[in-house]
Amino acid sequence: MTSQHRIEEQLTEEVIASFARTPDPRLKELMEALTRHLHAFIRETRLTEAEWTRAIEFLTAVGHITDEKRQEFILLSDVLGASMQTIAVNNEAYENATEATVFGPFFVEESPEVGLGGDITGGASGTPCWVEGTVRDTAGDPVPGARIEVWEADEDGFYDVQYTDSRVAGRGHLFSGENGEFSFWGTTPTPYPIPHDGPVGALLDAVGRSPVRAAHLHFMVSAPGLRTLVTHVFVEGDPQLEIGDSVFGVKESLVKRFEEQPAGAPAPDGRALGDKPWARSRFDIVLAPAQ
């Protein structure tokens, strides 16, 4: 072992030892592991002081652009695959339960309740789309009263919170019926880029990666005694599925058919759509037991 190697090892050990009196054992474990891995990264890459300074500037910029409507740290976690890895660790496959995927930065609390068969669009642009399905547990029993949060971007690729007029559109919640059934009107999802006018976008440019997400519709489903599910429905046939999703969120089981319906085709609930074409999709949800 060279003297330089010993100096580096000793520093790592000294920092780890500084957490010895941490009263919370889990916090102690996390800080010790973080220190080991962070120091190992610095040593492996022989990080320069200029690179360290640039990294601090980058993280500072991520903090500065983050506000109550834009979470650049979540975007950073997403594009590094850290969000999906955390989901994989915390949502181990359980029998036939629906797979989880990334939460994303655009969920908003207190979305409007739309009711079964209701409309989440709120005037958002896009092709009308009827979405229906059931919520069941892994034994196949229906889950009545499950809270189903749904949110999506409009056909221009923007969520309501990305506009400056305080609109509420493309989001809502409803509760599953007596037999676990649910249905609502939304819009057919389309691919869109994650916000790439900030530091995360600059990072993607620097490494030659696309910021575009595969077309998807967000779901968060919760019910007493069952694991809360955060997931998406992806659109079968979307070319972006082959190109790649910028946040690594696609799972084959979540890719569903969105069947295009011609103008004039009767809607499932009798809604008058005039001369507009529309689409329909089915997504049956299975919730795992709570851990």
TrEMBL record:
Gene3D superfamilies cross-referenced by the UniProt entry: Aromatic compound dioxygenase (2.60.130.10)
Highest taxon listed in the record's lineage: Bacteria
Cofactor: Fe(3+)
Keywords assigned by UniProt, alphabetized: Dioxygenase, Iron, Metal-binding, Oxidoreductase
Annotated Pfam families: Dioxygenase_C, Dioxygenase_N
GO terms assigned for molecular function: catechol 1,2-dioxygenase activity; ferric iron binding
Alphabetical list of InterPro entries matching this protein: Catechol_dOase_N (IPR007535), Intradiol_dOase_C (IPR000627), Intradiol_dOase_core (IPR015889), Intradiol_RC_Dioxygenase (IPR050770)
GO biological process annotation, one example: catechol-containing compound metabolic process
Location of the Intradiol ring-cleavage dioxygenases domain: 131-159
Family classification: Belongs to the intradiol ring-cleavage dioxygenase family.
Stated name of the protein: Hydroxyquinol 1,2-dioxygenase
Organism: Lentzea albida
